[in-house]
């Protein structure tokens, strides 16, 4: 028996809440230690020696971050995927596009983490991370973020847009990553750090609002 749209929305609300909790925990671990261990530090191209030193210092906390991020990826794909299924009748072509795109984002995110974990293993063996490997890592990350931004813009046209909370979700989804990602990737006006902050705020507020909207529609509908 095929689940009803309301069931998809209930599961989306639960997964959104879990994603939000994991996102906050990851942020705390990444930023409150002796060395910062945020993944964004290793998603851009910098001098190989500096990259290697920073990665070596961050490795203990970063391994925990990557483990939690693996769980986070499952939660965000579930949250967004079930939201797409729950609201699919509003615009089936967009729903199909978003469903395929979010699976590709998931693959790129896991691949990015896989390459980063291998880099930590290489450092443990006494190697320095090469510029080619840093470029490869940054390319995967850029592709992931750009596709995620495009996917969220598309999803924003699938979401309900009737009350204040829904409008905040729609416009945050539509603009947050669309602005933050290019600033981060391209370091526009040397505002890369601002791009990281905007991306983080978009994700935190997005999962909170998505949990509220999907839960309300699962109960109301």
Topology (elements, then pairings):
Blueprint: H1 5-32, H2 48-86, H3 92-124, H4 131-156, H5 164-186, H6 192-220
How would you describe this structure in keywords?
single chain; 221 residues; 81% helix; 0% strand
Q: What distance lies between the first and last C-alpha atoms, to the nearest angstrom? A: 19 Å
- The oligomeric state of the chains shown is single chain
Specify the biggest β-sheet: none
Topology as a string of helices (H) and strands (E): HHHHHH
Total number of domains = 1
Estimated helix fraction: over 70%
How big is the Rg?
18 Å
* Mean of pLDDT: 93
Which percent band covers the strand fraction? under 5%
Total DSSP helices: 6
